[in-house]
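Appendix B. Extra example for self-study. Work through it before the problem class; the solution is given directly after the inputs so you can check yourself.
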Amino acid sequence: MIENLHFIFGDQLSHSLLNLQHADKENDVILMCEVSQEANYAEHHKKKIAFIFAAMRHFAQELGDQGFKVDYVKLDDAKNSGSFDEELKRAIEKYQPQKISLTEPSEYRVWQKVLHWQKIHKITFEIFPDTRFLCSQVEFRNWAKDKKQLRLEFFYREMRKKHKILLDATNKPIGGKWNYDIENRKAPKTGMKSPTRISHKKDAITSEVLDLVAEKFPKNFGDLLPFHFAVTRDQAMIEAKHFIDELLINFGDYQDAMLSNEPYLYHSLLSCYINVGLLEPLEICKMAERAYHKGRAPLNAVEGFIRQILGWREYVRGIYWLRMPQYLESNFLNAKKDLPEFYWNGETQMFCLSEVVKQTKQHAYSHHIQRLMITGNFALIAGLSPKQVHEWYLGVYADAFEWVEAPNTIGMALYADGGVMASKPYAASGKYISRMSNFCKSCRFDPEITVGEKACPFNALYWNFLQENEAQLKNNQRLTFAYANLRKMEKPKLQEILAQAQKNLEKLTANKL
Ligand SMILES: Cc1cc2nc3c(=O)[nH]c(=O)nc-3n(C[C@H](O)[C@H](O)[C@H](O)COP(=O)(O)OP(=O)(O)OC[C@H]3O[C@@H](n4cnc5c(N)ncnc54)[C@H](O)[C@@H]3O)c2cc1C
Ligand code: SF4
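Solution. Structure tokens for the complete assembly:
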């Protein structure tokens, strides 16, 4: 019999967790488990499963080294039942704890489980808030209350003030402006190369996990090897320092740039480490702020980076908890087409899409603009089902957890929430992709052409998207210019473009685009 059973989930790998702060090394047990139900609830990338299990096992080892009693259930343990429900029940029977302690789960699905456990187990549950997030659910609800529009910019300013980040002595934004995004849209330079990324050595724990994933998930999407991920806090901190010292300086300028064979450019690659708890959002923001004060990175880069973490990351979590569970059903534009095969195999003549899917398959990563303006933009203008697109994003990236993935996909990329998150749909033609990348140079299509054999499919699909969704979108102020252009178009020309879009969509359905 023990006093307290602490249940730690796979994205709670932080020594700062409140329930861990309350754990007693003598009288408590910490439970962690790898369950097949979690590993299979989406089509997870092999690297994602390996990263999470390896990070969990290292975290359990660290806790054990600190003197905690840890019960770690491996995926292939003979008695592993495969679900959180059963593993908790088994641990209760084994230890007969007086109390179950946990930190609130990040995802709605797991929160429903916790509510259910409280009903069926006649034990006290002690549930701690997740203080790693910088805005609590209650705080976000209060902020959102009475607001007609939930715009990131205003939320972000509040967060800057609350956490006193990049403020001067009078609490005004350093440099005089809150947001330097306008400076962060440079096109890539020819021959541009970003510094080589760190590859962490694999120890016996990681090697064992890699063998396990190879054996148990052979058919899952993505390449398991090479595996470069950090799997401990110390290694993740090396990644963070490398980013701050070597890459942050250019982060802002080339934030929106895309290059083939340069999947990372100047992006931090920190999302997966922050999302599982190896790094904490506030410490990363402070590291970036210090780099600015030491004159090691310009304001546009530092502000832009901090906005992503202090602003966007907290904001999407707020939206998720505000709108769940209905959020997953959102389909404002009534988009219904099935996700094409090429999202899984990369086999499409559209170079930009094949390149981004290829990078995704290799690294379980693609950067924000690739997610938003290539795979997301295409899904939007081709009218793909938000649910299917959401399930794809939830599986293929190492950083994908529903609380952050769903608002980004359903809200930002697909406008399926009708504008809760984004003030307009991020729909763009091939000309945008040509300006911000070198993809079009290797493509059989031409971003300047809209109709005919060589026409870039994005172009006709873009106009078709505006035309088809006119009823829902025409009153959006930020689309006034786009709709004015659509109306200016001569009828025969428009008909030709719309016919081309139908051809593109037919080819898409036949997997021939
Ligand atoms: C359709 C779509 C799906 C996405 N799915 C996920 C997801 O499953 N998990 C995830 O963490 N991010 C997701 N994002 C947001 C963003 O693309 C990733 O956080 C980012 O690409 C991660 O790479 P990075 O660490 O190199 O980020 P950087 O470009 O270096 O940005 C720094 C950090 O800011 C945070 N951040 C940046 N943008 C966002 C954002 N829009 N929302 C939340 N946090 C942000 C991340 O923690 C990131 O590590 C998605 C975006 C889109 C458009
Ligand atoms: S031409 Fe069109 S399809 Fe080809 S890479 Fe450029 S944007 Fe993509």
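Self-check: The pocket of flavin-adenine dinucleotide (ligand 1) is lined by residues 267-271, 274-275, 305, 308-309, 312-313, 316, 367-368, 371-372, 376, 393, 397, 399-400, 404-405, 408-409, 412-413 (CB under 6 Å). If your reasoning did not lead you there, revisit section 3.
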